[in-house]
Amino acid sequence: xxxxxxxxxxxxxxxxxxxxxxxxxxxxxxxxxxxxxxxxxxxxxxxxxxxxxxxxxxxxxxxxxxxxxxxxxxxxxxxxxxxxxxxxxxxxxxxxxxxxxxxxxxxxxxxxxxxxxxxxxxxxxxxxxxxxxxxxxxxxxxxxxxxxxxxxxxxxxxxxxxxxxxxxxxxxxxxxxxxxxxxxxxxxxxxxxxxxxxxxxxxxxxxxxxxxxxxxxxxxxxxxxxxxxxxxxxxxxxxxxxxxxxxxxxxxxxxxxxxxxxxxxxxxxxxxxxxxxxxxxxxxxxxxxxxxxxxxxxxxxxxxxxxxxxxxxxxxxxxxxxxxxxxxxxxxxxxxxxxxxxxxxxxxxxxxxxxxxxxxxxxxxxxxxxxxxxxxxxxxxxxxxxxxxxxxxxxxxxxxxxxxxxxxxxxxxxxxxxxxxxxxxxxxxxxxxxxxxxxxxxxxxxxxxxxxxxxxxxxxxxxxxxxxxxxxxxxxxxxx
Length: 480
Description:
Elements: H1 3-9, E1 13-16, E2 19-22, E3 29-31, E4 43-49, H2 53-64, E5 69-73, E6 88-89, H3 105-121, H4 124-127, E7 134-138, H5 141-157, E8 162-166, H6 167-173, E9 184-188, E10 192-193, H7 196-209, E11 213-216, E12 220-225, E13 229-230, E14 233-234, E15 242-246, E16 251-259, H8 267-272, E17 274-275, E18 278-288, E19 299-302, H9 303-312, E20 343-346, E21 352-360, H10 370-380, H11 386-389, E22 393-404, E23 410-414, E24 419-426, H12 432-448, H13 455-461, E25 471-472
Parallel strand pairs: 4-5, 4-16, 5-11, 7-19, 16-24
Antiparallel strand pairs: 1-2, 2-3, 6-10, 7-9, 8-9, 12-15, 13-14, 15-16, 17-25, 18-21, 18-22, 19-20, 20-21, 23-24
Helix pairs in contact: 2-7, 2-12, 3-12
């Protein structure tokens, strides 16, 4: 892990002996290490694996429902893909017909994006949330035509929070754009940004306030199903369905398990024989020195990259490659650039964070490609004001995002894999911070029986889907 960067992104972590106090002042809370409470005999309603935005959101929803929930995180809360992201939040606004059960596949992702934004609003003070709006820039006639088509489509679907701006309007509303560099932009006024690590910290804090136990530096190495028939009778609800074993030999017993561990699903192979088609993709970020507030008022995306990703959306996946490359990556398996990708936003301290390349990587590869940073700076210099581009680069880092090989989320109960009570929520790719809060909340509702996942989830995100889903490579071992 890039400890230097984490020290800056997670300044509130202070270790005191065998514990870690997270948060500042009265907002701080105690995270217990497993060594402090190694009681493996208690049966928890749910054990959540993964302390990013998805896992903490699931834990919060379960704790609100008065479930006994333990969250296990192998490093620190928000230290993975979530905490290292740019924190941009894209939203088209309210879905025209926002009844989750009746959602069409076409409205599913916009619904999740907006619901996440509404959830994040509840933590606005803790995570520096700003509804800045977003500009997707068109720099060529082809890109402008694409935005015009997209705008017409969204308006026809009933979305009212989107506007198409001409060149003059873009330059009036966004001082960070270099005059004459863009032809127009799609403005989504419900979009915004937040500090992602602070958001996860706030969600975790609220989960503990509702009774959840969060254990950090606990690595799960194996999950085993428990035989549910004892003494000739079916196991009762009081009995555990699964046992989770850690690298320290501690066991956690649970009626249900939610796995939201991002690029770290390898432990599911050991006892369950599950092959999860999720791979790490490295995103590289860079940060400017502090500038006056308002130098870049909106979140900035480029239509060039959207068009490039759309063109590759249905490209055939080379599964025989040493590192198969999923959709929405910027480079192929040989390192050749396929799509130029650029986005950025100004943080509350005045610095501007930029992101770009998405490169298929191996586990724990956090090396920064400085040639890629220089190339990316050249790309954004084509449309950003010289006053921004003249600012020194103050920091760089890389994070690993969990990309599903077919580009779709893997969310739901693994009933199709004959593992009832085991839930998966992964494959969010670059959209963890945008989709994680809503998906986590909805998974918690489904686990408690409050509300099932929408049928559109089954169509798009079923983790046991025939193509692109989880597969079972070996029979599961059961323990008495």
